[in-house]
Every structure is written in C-alpha cells, then in structure tokens.
Task: inverse folding
C-alpha cells in the first residue's frame, strides 16, 4: 500500500498534492437530543395531590384541574430527550440499534426518591430515567433506488407511512392521520419501504404489528394493533394515501394502569376520549367489554412541508368503525367519521412567515342511533396516545410544547364522544428571517351538537440566538368556555435541538 501511495505522488506535477481518497463507511455512534425548559404562569390549578407530578388530559375532568380566579399557579420545568443510535461500521449501514431516554422534572419538586417526571428537588439524587425507545433497525440493500427499513422493538408508532426516526415533523404532523389517532411508543415490528424510478420517489408504504398490552402469556386477554399504509406520489409535490388499521382488544377494559384501557375506561375519559357505559344499573359494576376496531382513511395534499413552493394543502377523511362485545348484551356496533383540511402560505422570507388555516370535524355519538357514532383514538389505550400539533394552541387544544402539564379544554379529537367542529388559524412574520419572529393565533371549537367549547387567542414572540436554539414568550386565553373561570397562561420557553 505504501509503494502505491508513493508511485501516485510521483506521478503528479510538482504543484499537485496527491493524497489517497478517504473512504468513509456509514456507521458509528450518533446522538440526537431535544432540550426544553419552560416557566409558566397560569390560572389552571391542580386540586389532586396524586396527579401533581404529571398532569394530562381534559381541563376540568378526572385529572383534578380547573381554571381559578383566586389562584395563579407558577412553575418551572425542564426536560431532556436523547436518542442514541449505533450502527456498526462493519455492517455498512444495514443495521443499527437505537435507544431513547427522557428525564424531566419541575424545579424543586422531589428528591431522593424513585419515579418519572420528578427529580428537581434539593439534593436531587432521583431515579427518574424513562426509556422511550429501544429497537433494532435493519436496512436490507436493494437495487434501483428502492429501500426497506425493518424496525423491531419499542418504537414510536405514528399514523402515516413515514418512518419516525428519519422523518421531519411535517411528515408526521401533516400526512396520514397527523398523529390524531396514534402517536406514542409501542413494542412491535414495523416495515417501512420506498419504491423509486428514474423520476424519483413514487410509493411509500408501512406495515406494522404492535402489542399494546400483554397481560397473560397463555390467556387471550391482550390488545394488539395492526397497521397498513400506502402513499403514491403521482407528480412532484403531490401525494395520495390510503390507510387501514385494526385494533383487537380482548383485555376486557382492565389492561394498563389502574385506570384500565379502552373506550369504556377512566383512562379514556381522563384524556378527553369517550367513556362508553354498558351497565344496566348506573351503580353496578362495569361489565367486561372487548372490542374489534377498524380505521379506514384516505388523505392527500400538495407540498405538505412547504419545500416545493410557498403554498401547501393537506386533507384527510377517516371512518372509524367496529364493535364492542359485552357478556349478556347484544353486540354494539357503530361508525364515526373524521375530516380534516389545512392550507398554508409562506408569504415572506423565513420559516415563521406563514399564514395558515385548518378545519377539523368529528362526528358525535347520537344517543338516538344504535351504536357508538364518534371516533376512538390511542388516548383510550395509553397516556398521551394521540395528539395533534398543527393547531398551535396552548389551552383550547393540546400544547405540543408542554413538558409535564398538557391540559386542554379539548384534549382528544373525539371530544369525549360528543364530536368536534374546530377552526384554527395563525399568522406569523419573521422580523429577521429565521432569527426572530412573532405569531398571532386564533382557534374556535364547538361540539357536534353546536355547543360552544371556547375560543382561544394567543401570541408568541420567538428569538433564535444560535442555530437550532429558540427562546420565546407566549400568552393565551380561552374566551367563552364552559369553565368556571377564565383559562389563561403565559410562558417563557427554551427549545434546543442537539446533534
């Protein structure tokens, strides 16, 4: 090898510097982190001492929260998420191992103990490491620009064709279900694929099987989720998608935490989902309820990430159908619908100079019609099992920037089975492109029976002193809500992406 290098060097002219070409094999250890800190002043107070570390779900619901005119809550929180991926160099990028962890706490909350979402007390020494992901990914080599990724283990499960570990936020939030149906971690097996030709990417697909709850290994009492998705790109920037999912629930409503799981559980009600009641006697014990649930959806759009021009549109229509099985009672079947559409326009330079409007509709459960007529989401099966981030609100709908206190007037798209008609819009302007900007937002929500749920007005100021580091100030209030007092909040935020 040394003789070859010397010969190559002597073959050049006197002014040339000839060096051997460095070959870099894909692989090694990579890190992606997300750091958040938030100082909050709010009229939302927590009345339950058992839910003070992490508070999620519907404002005024089972989480013990309410808006107050008498008290102003103040808290400071911190969170770090870290994703470590190791790809052995010898495997040339065909296999990798990913581990994701999270630590979060409120300043001064607790120390010298064990538990997640706490550990900021004096002395610290808290065992609070939370495992969010732990999976292996295999990427077989295919010719012709095609690719496949097979993910095995504890992984993030979305409701679109995009592989979460390699996708942009807009890919997850603005395609498929936009995380409105499913968006959390689960153990299982996924396969993500792309088919390409000389023009470029034509087809994306995903197939997945996940065990949400495994209670007894030899007993038929589990909850499993099966997902199949496809997306076709007929022309540059356009996309059309089709999705079919099936959830098989044989847990009888008793899986998971002490709150149970499924559309008949307190967990579902806590997070703003439906709480179906099949009891003959309102004071009697709840019967065992199993279910087969299906979701069928089509979606499409143009330029969903605003990387092909200034205009982007997205839309989706989904049918949620299936049946509930109660011992001694006839099977309860029904069908619910969701429709969603969003339009965006980048009117000036900068990532934040975007005007947007979005409409979301879900059907309500009409008591005069047999069967459940609303929709069901992952919030009925896991803590923050589904949410949506495109509405840009802080209190009316879930705030995706929340750390341990994600409380909203409407915290699930089903609105407790009562249906939802929601309009949200925002107008942003980057005063200095990609460095500083301001955004004004408005959102309004009504139930499926036209009852007003509230109108939120909000504003945010954002500064970017360093690349990928944002600091901001924001405020929001919900007017004309059904709460006893005015829900409002003011926050100072820090968000830093580290890699």
Result:
């Amino acid at each position: 090898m040394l003789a070859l290098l010397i010969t190559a060097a002597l073959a050049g002219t006197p002014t040339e510097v000839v060096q051997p070409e460095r070959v870099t094999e894909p692989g090694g250890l990579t890190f992606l982190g997300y750091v958040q800190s938030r100082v909050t002043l709010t009229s939302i107070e927590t009345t339950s001492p058992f839910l003070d570390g992490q508070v999620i779900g519907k404002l005024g619901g089972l989480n013990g929260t309410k808006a107050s005119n008498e008290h102003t809550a103040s808290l400071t929180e911190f969170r770090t998420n870290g994703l470590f991926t190791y790809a052995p160099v010898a495997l040339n990028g065909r296999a990798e191992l990913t581990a994701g962890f999270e630590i979060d706490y409120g300043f001064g909350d607790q120390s010298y103990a064990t538990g997640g979402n706490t550990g900021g007390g004096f002395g610290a020494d808290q065992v609070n490491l939370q495992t969010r992901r732990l999976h292996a990914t295999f990427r077989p080599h295919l010719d012709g620009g095609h690719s496949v990724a097979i993910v095995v283990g504890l992984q993030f499960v979305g409701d679109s064709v995009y592989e979460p570990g390699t996708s942009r936020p807009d890919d997850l939030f603005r395609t498929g279900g936009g995380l409105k149906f499913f968006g959390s971690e689960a153990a299982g097996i996924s396969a993500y694929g792309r088919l390409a030709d000389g023009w470029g990417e034509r087809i994306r697909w995903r197939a997945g099987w996940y065990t949400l709850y495994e209670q007894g290994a030899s007993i038929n009492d589990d909850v499993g989720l099966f997902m199949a998705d496809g997306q076709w790109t007929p022309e540059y920037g356009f996309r059309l998608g089709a999705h079919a999912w099936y959830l098989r629930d044989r847990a009888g409503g008793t899986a998971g935490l002490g709150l149970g799981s499924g559309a008949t559980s307190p967990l579902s009600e806590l997070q703003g989902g439906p709480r179906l009641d099949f009891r003959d006697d309102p004071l009697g014990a709840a019967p065992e309820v199993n279910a087969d649930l299906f979701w069928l959806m089509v979606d499409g759009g143009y330029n969903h990430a605003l990387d092909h021009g200034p205009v982007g549109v997205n839309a989706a229509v989904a049918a949620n159908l299936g049946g509930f099985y109660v011992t001694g009672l006839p099977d309860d079947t029904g069908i619910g619908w969701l429709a969603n559409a969003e339009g965006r326009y980048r009117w000036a330079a900068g990532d934040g100079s975007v005007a947007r409007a979005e409409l979301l509709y879900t059907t309500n459960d009409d008591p005069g019609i047999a069967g459940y007529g609303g929709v069901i989401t992952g919030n009925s099966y896991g803590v923050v099992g589904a949410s949506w981030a495109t509405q840009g609100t802080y209190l009316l709908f879930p705030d995706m920037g929340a750390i341990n206190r994600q409380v909203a007037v409407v915290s699930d798209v089903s609105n407790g089975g009562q249906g939802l008609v929601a309009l949200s819009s925002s107008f942003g302007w980057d005063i200095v492109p990609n460095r500083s900007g301001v955004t004004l937002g408005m959102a309004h929500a009504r139930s499926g029976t036209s009852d007003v749920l509230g109108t939120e007005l909000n504003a945010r100021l954002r500064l970017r002193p360093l690349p990928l580091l944002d600091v901001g100030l924001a405020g929001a209030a919900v007017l004309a809500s059904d709460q006893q007092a005015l829900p409002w909040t003011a926050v100072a935020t820090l968000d830093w992406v580290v890699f």
Q: What stands out?
A: The longest helix spans residues 2-10. The CA atoms of residues 188 and 357 lie 36 Å apart.
